[in-house]
Design goal:
- The structure is a single chain.
- This protein is α+β, with helices and mostly antiparallel strands.
- The chain contains nine helices and seven strands.
Length: 256
């Protein structure tokens, strides 16, 4: 047992560090409660400012969700959908958010029928959503720790059977840890990068080419979600869920 103490101590330290980094600081909790209080008293602009101060530097589902609610109450459809979509990336399975997003999208003028898919892409997006990052990170640390502890204990074993068991456990745990590392990396990329945006102006003319004389292909309205294909200076190439492609000024869009 004495020989195992160093390895058990290392395990405890790593697991503790993996959980501590996700704890919400007292200042953020206080700001969130103040914003909630303002929202409950219908001081929506004040609530908006409070939630914005939180999401500016933190990944926080409740603040993004409530920020969407605050904008919706003020009649700001584009920003409302924007923050609902950002909240959805953090927690794509929340039923209350889904209901509010459906309600907001019902007010969008554009009705775009999505092309049929097998659903695999949507499932993959849910698995690697930014909200899954803490889970994958903790699993990665946990399995790597288990693997190294198993190999460490194996060095102290004389019995061949025990060495084989610990070797198998160590190899399996490290392999799963590598998979979790890939998932962690994928989730982190979705935190730092965006491939979708929301139209933020009342009316946006989608152009055929990135030149002043380009013809207008179709018109989009506030709240419509588009996929970003390419960012070229002040104009971005975008695609709709129905497959239509064109170019919009980047000033008309806000990335999710």
């Amino acid at each position: 047992m004495e020989r195992m103490k160093p390895f058990l101590s290392a395990l405890l330290i790593l697991v503790s560090s993996a959980s501590l980094w996700t704890q919400e600081p007292a200042a953020l909790k206080s700001a969130f409660e103040a914003a909630n209080s303002a929202y409950s008293e219908a001081r929506y602009e004040e609530a908006q400012a409070g939630y914005e101060s939180i999401v500016e530097g933190h990944l926080h589902f409740e603040s993004e969700f409530n920020l969407g609610n605050a904008f919706f109450k003020q009649g700001n459809l584009g920003h409302s959908i924007l923050h609902y979509e950002r909240a959805k990336r953090i927690n794509p399975s929340n039923s209350d958010l889904e209901s509010n997003l459906i309600l907001a999208n019902a007010r969008v003028i554009d009705r775009i029928e999505a092309l049929p898919t097998a659903g695999i892409e949507d499932l993959w997006e849910r698995i690697l959503s930014p909200g899954r990052y803490p889970m994958w990170f903790r699993l990665m640390i946990g399995f790597w720790t288990l693997g190294f502890v198993a190999f460490g204990l194996r060095m102290w074993q004389n019995a061949i059977g025990n060495r084989r068991i610990l070797g198998t456990i160590g190899t399996t745990a490290l392999s799963i840890g590598v998979v979790c590392m890939s998932m962690t990396y994928g989730a982190s990329k979705r935190i730092n990068g965006s491939k979708e945006a929301i139209v933020m102006v009342d009316q946006a003319n989608v152009l055929s080419e990135p030149i002043a004389a380009a013809s207008t292909l179709f018109v989009l309205h506030e709240g419509t979600k588009v996929r970003i294909l390419q960012r070229v200076e002040a104009q971005w190439e975008i695609a709709l869920a129905n497959g239509n492609v064109g170019r919009l000024p980047s000033s008309d869009l806000e990335e999710i």
